[in-house]
Structures are given as C-alpha cells and as structure tokens.
Amino acid sequence: MPEKKALRLTCPVCETRLKVAENIEQFACLNCGSELKVVKAEGLASLVPTQASADQMTDSQQQLIEVNSALKNADDIYGVGCAITTMGITLVACILLAVAIVIQSQVLFWAAIAIALVLLAFVLFIFLTASSRGTDPLLRQRDRLQAQVEAEEPLPEDEAGPEIARADPNPPRQPGETGS
Ligand SMILES: [Zn+2]
User: How close is the Cα of 41 to the center of ligand 1, in Å?
Assistant: First the structure.
C-alpha cells in the first residue's frame, strides 16, 4: 500500500502552515476559512485562493497576498543562493586543507581556514544586505496593505450576553473583623 504523502503548504491569506494530503485539490483553510486551490507548477505545489474566495476579498487583501508570495519567493532565492555559495566555499576549503595535509604545508593549512572563514563572513554579509535591500520595499508595502486590510474589516460588535450581568456583590464583612 503506497504511503499517503502530505504537502506542507502555507495559506496565502493568513500565512498558516498547512498539511495537505497530496490528492486533495481544493479545501478551506483551517485557520481563516478561505477556500484554497492546490496549484502544481514545475513539481512545486502552492496554494492560491479560489475564484469564489478571491471575489469576496477586497483589493488590498488580494494585493497583500501577492506581496506575501513575492516576499516568499525572494526569500527562497536568497536562501538557495546562500546555501550554494556556502557549500562551494566549504568544498574548496576542504580541498585546500587536503592538499595542505598531503604536501605538509602548515602555511597553506591555516591560510585555507582563514580564507574560508573570511569568504563565509563576506557571503553572509552580502546576502544579509542584498536580501534586505530586495525585500524592504515589499515589507513596507506589506505593512501598508496589512494596515489597510485591518482598517477595512468591520470591528467585531460587542454583543452583551446575559452572562454579563453576573451577580458578584462584595461579601459583607463579618462584624468585629479587624486586620490582625
Ligand atoms: Zn488561512
């Protein structure tokens, strides 16, 4: 019996991580209730709101979803680039270390370690600054849209239930009771 595969996907509306069985094509988000469709492109699955749930959204909500997915893509690209570069540097450093051991050169050994560390720190710095430069406008746009969406949502009405009228009178003090 083949094992059932579950996809780990993120709701584009509320950003909740969802586990979705592979054969499911359409479902409602557990958290926000949006109707979502599983879209598979180039072997990667992602979630998009169905036409019906998109119709119910305001313009800023839809824009917010687009900005969020653009942010996610940007993060993925930087993450992969960073991982590949780091692996490359580590690989070269390992080769240099092996060569240093073979030719018994202490200078090359320490130089390889020092260069690898400097390069790794450099890559980290480049990716951190490049990543924030690329996503900063998107982050600002997202904050603006999020505020807009919140402003559009009607405030939950404070419905006073019957429980509100709880009888909680102060218990009368015992006569003669003092502090100590
Ligand atoms: Zn959701």
Answer: 21
